[in-house]
Amino acid sequence: MHPVGGICASIYAQRLRAEGMGSNEQAEIFASQDYEALKQECVESGCLFEDPCFPAEPPSLGFKELAPHSSKTSGVEWMRPTELTDDPQFIVGGATRTDICQGALGDCWLLAAIASLTLNERLLHRVVPHGQTFQDDYAGIFHFQFWQFGEWVDVVIDDRLPVKDGELMFVHSAEGNEFWSALLEKAYAKLNGSYEALSGGSTTEGFEDFTGGVSEMYELRSAPRDLHRIINKALDRGSLLGCSIDITSAFDMEAVTFKKLVKGHAYSVTGMKEVNFRGEMERLIRVRNPWGQVEWTGAWSDNSPEWDEIDPSEHEDLHLKMEDGEFWMSFNEFKRQFSRLEICNLSPDALSEDTLSHWNTIKFYGSWRRGSSAGGCRNHPNTFWINPQYKITLLEEDDDPEDDEVACSFLVALMQKDRRRYRRHGQDMHTIGFAVYEIPEEYRGCQNIHLKKNFFLSNQSCARSETFINMREVSTRVRLPPGEYLIIPSTFEPNREADFVLRVFTEKQSETEEMDDQISADLKDEVCIQSCCNIWRTYCNTHLKAQDFIFVLFDFGFFFLQDEITEDDIDDSFKSMFAQLAGEDMEISIRELKTILNRVVTRHKDLKTDGFSTDSCRTMVNLMDKDGSARLGLVEFQVLWNKIRNWLVIFRQFDLDKSGAMSSYEMRLAVEAAGFKLNNKLNQILVARYADNEMIDFDNFICCLVKLEAMFRYFQQLDKEGSGVAEMTITEWLYLTMCG
């Protein structure tokens, strides 16, 4: 997308969010497909819905193992539930964990999340809207809602499902005529680009997309002593829980252990209970395999003798069924057998109204862009500082009577957006993480500032993500004293492009804001004209041609800084020089300006440039031309010339490696040295427009600054009261944009 278009779209999106768009009650419409309107259209026409955005064709299945013409997709048909059974039902007897049986797709992580979702009917119906059926007004169309990177989206699908050898290929219900889970999986596949895009992942990803919550992860080998309390508290609050067993090699993937646990496979945790066993309390945990079968065969499994030694009423209360994929095991055995536990804590909007405690949440939408805001991790000090920066002010310490330390708890969750969609293009998750810095006293209370390289060279982080990892989200719980802190989200390597959502969850109230420079310009009005004219008189005595004199001006560094000058301010001898350059019409055309500038830059061998192009010179003439002649008169040319010479000094100053060109992050500093403070989005636009492979040569640097100054001056003319807000007519708007 064109940078300006992207910025306009971002501003529009911010306004919609402020109006409530993106909430579960007012979900965004995915792919511009309105469910109610499409269904009504189908009912009135008598035609079943066929989704043009996710057609019943091979590319919707996948791109590699499920690619068109692959062995796994050979013989696949797309069939509606009404073609598979005489009595199709959306949900039979309520949505339950046994409705989710895995098919020929490695998305156990997703199915484990769906299974946990069924334990909370309120959460389930945020994702699976009420009132959908194969009976009343059936039109072959269904819809589901998912949380995606800070916003809820409503996804419409048709009900044509991939079938092979008469059976559903992917997720299915144990009830042969129940289809809500298969349709939910299809909607999620559409959201991510294909079914195959769902292969492999973390249960927390599914958890968050069904709730908008934030996840935490515990390594069971080093679990906290009170883990059972954490799990009980999470289950009581409706949190979603998943667990898995690590693999040590590719051969371990989905390998079944001696006691029938599957390695590298995502399970869901669905309950915890204490029972009286042989006179002592035994803590049990309930786990479910989304395959719907292959269950734990050790102690407390479905048919183990331990059940014979507990009270029959407790036995009945635990609802044991044979081979349904769900089983109990002792909690201690659980910690020995499984490697990792994942918990998704629900956000306030997902919690019931009577919930007493919840996180306070703040979301930021940001991006890493090559050359402007993708600085990489702290290992890259030259570019780390260009990453987006966010300030959090911790105001109140935690209420924890058992803890003597004065500290504030908060959780930072960094999520990269839409990476599954890029899998078909050979891309995947970036390696991401974040660092937290204490803001020094001299910057406390500051809002409009983006800290630069020197700050990070002389200050260490006070907290960071536990690791940089190539997962969709990395989150870490942090405890720090009250104060102001800076959060820097980044990819591990520089120049990795992605959009991201940064969420900050605090136990107590806090203040959070993006740190960004305030847009401003220091437009100088100094006069330094007489000395230049004296130099001109001296060289007139040596009979230099005007073309040669411009080289002298350039090399000696004499230039005018005053912009509001008239012809009366200009010495007659300078006018004479201009007359030789301009010719009979006494104005410098685009072609003449190109000739003059390129004669100058060719004499400066240290400048890397292909020369000023016709388009570059046209831009300069358009922006400096005040009388609309498309040519530069005496005053206009002199103002432009003064600026170019001044900006050459800055260019050389910030070309740190003396390569003759500036890197994009050197340009950011150079633009500020020229008097312009810009925010992250504007710096992103400048790099997109004026850099080539993150390098900016001299002519592009000059064109950039000419345009910046012209735009600032034009705005100042419109903003007569200095309020920071300008009004313009359509004529003024068109003049401004067309000249730009």
Task: Summarize the model shown.
The protein is 31% helix and 19% strand. It is an alpha+beta fold and 740 residues long.
Summarize the SSE layout with pairings.
Layout: H1 3-18, E1 28-29, H2 35-45, E2 77-79, H3 81-84, H4 108-117, H5 121-127, E3 141-148, E4 151-158, E5 161-164, E6 167-168, H6 180-192, H7 203-211, E7 214-219, H8 227-236, E8 240-244, E9 266-277, E10 280-288, H9 312-317, E11 326-330, H10 331-337, E12 340-345, E13 360-368, E14 389-394, E15 408-416, E16 432-438, H11 453-458, E17 463-464, E18 473-480, E19 483-491, E20 498-506, E21 510-515, E22 520-521, H12 530-540, H13 546-556, H14 572-582, H15 590-602, H16 614-624, H17 634-654, E23 662-663, H18 664-673, E24 676-677, H19 680-690, E25 695-696, H20 698-718, H21 730-739
Parallel strand pairs: 1-4
Antiparallel strand pairs: 2-5, 3-4, 5-6, 7-12, 8-9, 8-12, 9-10, 10-11, 13-20, 14-19, 14-21, 15-18, 15-20, 16-17, 16-19, 22-24, 23-25
Helix pairs in contact: 4-7, 15-16, 16-20, 17-18, 17-20
Describe the structure.
The protein is α+β, with helices and mostly antiparallel strands and about 750 residues long. The chain has four domains: about 30-200, no CATH class; about 215-350, Cysteine proteinases (Cathepsin B, Chain A, Alpha-Beta Complex); about 360-515, Jelly Rolls (Sandwich), CATH 2.60.120.380; about 530-740, Recoverin, domain 1, CATH 1.10.238.10. The strands form seven sheets. It has a six-stranded antiparallel β-sheet with strand order 7-12-8-9-10-11. A hairpin with a 2-residue loop joins strand 5 (about 160-165) and strand 6. Helix 4 packs across helix 7 (about 205-210), helix 15 packs across helix 16 (about 615-625) and helix 17 crosses helix 18. The protein is elongated and about 110 Å long. About 40% of the residues are buried.
